[in-house]
Write a structure and sequence with these properties.
Elements (H helix, E strand, L loop, with lengths): L1 E14 L2 E2 L6 E7 L9 H10 L3 E2 L5 E3 L1 H4 L2 E6 L21 H22 L3 E3 L6 E16 L15
Parallel strand pairs: 3-6, 6-7
Antiparallel strand pairs: 1-2, 1-3, 1-8, 4-5
Helix pairs in contact: 1-3
Length: about 160
């Protein structure tokens, strides 16, 4: 699982001409799943996202999290985070999880994030899985962080997920 996290001053998503509520300051996370991903990584990745200390403190340092600031959170599915551009000029997306299972994991991840955020007074806005969207944001910093479950040691032990 990959999360591309951006610190935002404000943001919203446009889907088929309709806009979601605007939110911010806070975070926007683009979310992608790969074939080996399971529900086991969703909770730790949600906790990492909500508690990631990349929001500015009183001195302007990246020292606060959504949990501390009650900022807004935008979640958008983005399978292209698993693009492989190693060969040729057209990206390959074979590492990305198929749409059906990816949508199920995305929906579950959104539910887990909503649960974390509700307890903290944080609003959550989402895109629509598989839709063509306009993602509007005003970057703050800019600050962009890539969270990869493989790099965080959250991926399953080979063979334990049936692959």
């Amino acid at each position: 699982m990959r999360l591309l996290v951006q610190r935002i001053r404000e943001g919203w998503v446009e889907i088929a001409g309709a806009e979601t509520p605007r939110t911010g300051p806070g975070l926007l996370a683009l979310i992608a799943f790969r074939a080996a991903d399971t529900e086991a990584i969703l909770e730790p990745m949600a906790a990492k996202l909500v508690h990631l200390r990349i929001l500015a403190d009183g001195q302007g340092r990246m020292n606060r999290s959504l949990a501390e600031t009650a900022g807004g959170l935008i979640l958008v599915s983005q399978f292209t985070l698993y693009a492989d551009c190693a060969q040729g000029r057209r990206p390959s997306f074979t590492a990305a999880l198929a749409p059906g299972p990816a949508e199920a994991l995305y929906d579950r991840f959104v539910a887990i994030c909503r649960s974390h955020c509700a307890a903290l007074g944080i609003g959550v806005v989402t895109g629509q899985f598989g839709a063509t969207m306009g993602v509007h944001l005003v970057n703050d910093g800019p600050v962009t962080i890539l969270l990869d479950s493989a790099e965080l040691g959250l991926d399953p032990v080979p063979g334990s997920w049936g692959g």
